[in-house]
Amino acid sequence: MILASAQTSPKRYDISANLIDHYSLIELASKHGADLILFPELSITGYEREKAKELIFKKDDSELNELRKLSIKNQIIVIAGAPIQIRKDLYIGAFIIKPDDTVSIYTKQFLHTGEDIYFKSSFDYNPVIEIKNERISLAICADINNQKHPENAKMINTTIYLADIFFEPDDMARAYKTLSSYAEKYSMNVLMSNYTGQSWGLDGGGQSGFWDKNDNLISNLNDTDSGLLLIEKVNNDWTGKTVKYE
Fold it and tell me: β-strands 227-234, 217-220: how paired?
């Protein structure tokens, strides 16, 4: 099994350009045999609050069509983020797009201070992904700040914990400490995806990484380049490599 973490630099308010980056990174991940690709928080739109209502996506949105086609073509699960409207409410969410042409939604459960002005939180949308005897759960950014989140993931027998985030450079040491501790405490492999460049006027800290369930940092990206972190499981061992995206 091969997992890919996409480290991206979003263009503000430019959904079309961001989607093009998604398409290219999905194809690149597929060339390396990836079964799943994880993008950062709100990857399609960039992290936005005040403009979120102008950037809304829905589950059946036509702008997801190419992502769905690429998922089917390359037999890869795509996890990409956007402000998602469900009925009348708006959530910080992620689309889980599968090669069987189904789309499910994860919604952020624990919001940062100030996000609750623009978004709702919910525990109702929390699908488990199953690939090759692995049970995979998702977290979005501030979810990882609340220990109840990984505790709940462990309770449903999660073996791989995916964290798509938007953390600034000064927050990366804390993010690493937190995710490393979850890998060890809950015996879960942890894959994280973060931005580089700027979003919402803030710098992304990059350093997307993977920790195995024994708390070993297997591989990570740097804090400046866009690209892929590719993690492969052979028998019970994990290895990693990085691929730069120009």
Answer: unpaired
Assess whether pLDDT exceeds 90 at residue 207. Answer: yes
Sign of the Cα torsion 235, 164, 103, 65 reads negative
Tokens 């920790």 -> residue: 211
User: Could you say which DSSP state residue 174 is in?
Assistant: H
Q: Is residue 50 exposed (0-12), middle (13-18) or buried (19+ Cβ within 10 Å)? A: exposed
User: pTM, whole model, 2 decimals?
Assistant: 0.98
Residue 46 Cα to chain centre, angstroms? 13
What average pLDDT score do residues 230-245 get?
95
State the pLDDT at residue 212.
98
Residue located via tokens 């990882």:
144
As a whole number of angstroms, the distance between CA 84 and CA 93 comes to: 6
pLDDT of residue 98: 98
How far is it, in rounded angstroms, from Cα 184 to Cα 38?
Answer: 22
Distance CA 213, CA 99 (A): 27
The fold for domain 2-244 equals Nitrilase/N-carbamoyl-D-aminoacid amidohydrolase (3.60.110)
Residue 146 in this model has a pLDDT that exceeds 90: yes
Contacts 24+ apart (CB under 8 A), 178-185: 178/144, 178/145, 179/144, 179/209, 179/211, 180/211, 180/215, 180/217, 181/215, 182/144, 182/150, 183/211, 183/212, 183/213, 183/214, 183/215, 184/213, 184/214, 184/215, 185/150
Q: How confident is the model at residue 246 (pLDDT cuts 50, 70, 90)?
A: confident
